Amino acid sequence: MTPKELRSKKDKDLLGFLSKWQLELAGLKVQAAIGQCAKPARIPMLRRDIARVKTILHEREANAGGTNE
């Protein structure tokens, strides 16, 4: 997913994507370790998507908290 698409989602949806993708990534890593991974190119894509979601959630958390600087 693109960052623009992810930013339009609500936090609840992002957390759902995050848990789903982390589970998928774990499964793919296990498959890759035993040499049975059908989609090895999906691993870096999932890692990037997970990082995007975490970044967006962190940005929203930082903006919601506000700063007193």
Write a structural description.
The protein contains three helices and no strands. With 69 residues, it is mostly helical. Helix 2 (11-33) runs antiparallel to helix 3. The radius of gyration is 15 Å and the shape is elongated. 3% of the residues are buried. The model has no long low-confidence stretch (mean pLDDT 92).
Overview features:
about 70 residues; mainly alpha; about 75% helix
Helix content: over 70%
- Using DSSP, what is the number of strands? 0
Q: How would you sum up the global shape? A: elongated
What is the radius of gyration?
A: 15 Å
Mean pLDDT: 92
Count of alpha and pi helical runs:
3
What composes the largest sheet? none
Low-confidence stretches: none
Strand percentage lies at under 5%
* Helix and strand sequence: HHH
Structural class: mainly alpha
The N- to C-terminal Cα distance equals 34 Å
Task: Please sum up the structure shown.
The chain is an all-alpha fold and 69 residues long. It contains three helices and no strands.
Structural topology:
Elements: H1 3-7, H2 11-33, H3 42-65
